[in-house]
Amino acid sequence: MMEDTNSEILDCIVVGAGAAGLTAASVLHDAGKTFVVLEARDRLGGRAHSLPLSDGTPIEQGASRVHGARTPTWDYVIRTGMATHGPKPHELVKLSTAREDGTTHPPYFGGGEWRSGEQSAEVSEALERVPTVLGQPGQEDVSVLDALHQNGFTQAQIDAIAWELDAFAPIPIDELSARSAGDGYALGAENVASFEFVDGYSELWRRIAEPFADRIRLESPVTRVEWSPNGVQVHSAGGQFAARTAVVTLPLGVLQEGSVTFEPSLPQAKQEAIDDLRMGLEIKLGAEFRHAFWEPRVGLVNSFFNADSAMNRWWVPFARRPGPPALIAWTGAIHSAALTGKHEELEEVFISTLQTMFPEVDVRAELVALHIADWPSDPWARGAVSIAPVGAYFKRADLAAPTAPLLWAGEASSIDGNAESVHGAIATGRRAALDAFHLLRPLQPSNPDSRIDWSYFTGLV
Is this model's pTM higher than 0.85 or not? Predict the structure, then answer.
């Protein structure tokens, strides 16, 4: 536990020890700045968190992969010496290991029976075409549903796309910005190399935080932020702290809930951005079993589906790398809204769904442990990822804009198409730390025609 810093005027207060907060703190530490990190949870990492299974193998409760070989996440992977599995293509939706019956898509259960998993030519064509359609310029103010109708997609194709989008953009497609959905497709595209951590995301955060562990206060939820051109005072369960700047990395859902008050109130554009973006609802369940009882029926696949259940996506996390028998299931927006906070019911749906698919197995007897990541009911998240509905795509820029001396970070404030991702959060954390440097020692424009809005960086000397 660090010493009380109440009487110390710090350079910066970092609110939150998730991906954005830890990377902001890392930049501040490297620059020799004084700071404190205030985290509401009793752990690091926010919505990217690992739990050990019986043999110590980590299973991810939130974010699970590093998408792409050129993301800022790699700076910290290399710096901390983290080992990864990969590269390999995205496998959750469209790819699986070839099966004995010759099918190339994951099998699915529907109408009370197992089906081959082969998609119709109509659906396959739609899923191949939709990323290009949604990624077109000018789609930020068009809903996914309208974009699909305008481009001639059939109802069967639209139904298949809506089912797929429910996994990573969990709000209804008549409300979802087409451009936002296009960003999500680009993040998980089949041609983007995908990596997994051997020791899990939680170990990455531990290693990043190790050099400044004495500056982190866990179980210190922030309740009030007082700010003015003269600095910031933050009130938390861990004490009161004063600083010249602050980096706010609170999840969008927490900002929307209003459990943290800002005095004075935030500017109108900032508050409208918070109100107009949406927090997608998603629950993730990970289970360890005694045996891989699904393999005799579905084969050595990476995933399989169930069209009849609230938990319609099932991933086999260790199908292609060492690890105990395990499955991960998701619920999308509709079912998450109905099941959040009901963990006994979630466990029953999980087990009964598997029991229906594999009636020859006593699923409950096979279960070793079940871990539920109920992000909508988590008081420090209030949802899984931020989503831009129609008309709100550019609100991310308003959320990201500095309100000196408050700087803003977190995946919801990513403005380069990487919202909803860890590397989007990391990039915003580094950006906010650099904004703090400008405030701590304001730079002067050498070019009168500079495009930088220097008004952000005045008032603190």
Answer: yes
